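Dear colleagues,

As part of the handover before I leave the project, I'm documenting each prediction I ran so the next person doesn't have to rerun anything. This entry is a single chain, and its sequence is reproduced below.
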Amino acid sequence: MTAVDLARPMLAGRRGVVLGVSSANSIGYHVARTVRDLGASVAITCRPARVDRVAPLAAELGAALYPVDVGDEPSLAAAFDALGAGGAGLDFMVHGFVEIPEGVLGRSVLDVSRAQFEHVMSVSAWSLIAACRHARPLLARSTAPRVVALTSACSHRMTPNYHVAGIAKAALESAVLYLAMQLGRDGILVNAVGSSFLATDGALRAIGAGNAAATRALQAKRSATGRAIEPEDVARTISFLCSPFAQNLTGEIVTVDGGFARTYL
């Protein structure tokens, strides 16, 4: 069991990577900023096409930035090779890869092509397995290695304009279970954190600003806490799961939504 110094910031001295930062209004960015504020040294990845947009965010965070095309596994391998250069390790990895082809969520699930389905599934779910394979040697150098995947409550709730993304998130959650079993004897804890609706750039593109506002109003009305979920709520839960404070806790899907999913009102 790893000793924990309660007088230090929760992630002080720890080093990690957040996979899949797309903008200042992405959950990946909020996670990277929160773990940095809690004392961690953090690196981030983004799609090659978004390097110009994400580079200023990386500079603000003091984070190394690696362009990764999830469809090109050598680019993923190259990022982890760079992260592990000189024998460096990783204490945590946060997986936030997701990519939905333009217009897919605006159509019926019956109109999703096999190629589109396979693309969404590959980026959202298979990429976690691939990332864990490449990260495993680096995580093995940590005394408290952690993997956390970003999921969504829409993986198990019928949600308009989310269909194939929800299916992929359900697959991601299943991958978390089997990775937790595979990596647990190595001391690597694997969990996922999901939430009800967050008004990220991707979510706003999918459902529109008006629907987003209505959804958040419903969250505030129905949740036990009386408020809609905020990115910081999710980021802080992820930070805990990335820390040595999370011990012998693995294979869990944690929902952060103020009790919204538990309320019949």
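The two ends are 43 Å apart (CA to CA). The chain has a mean pLDDT of 91.

All the best with the project,
I.
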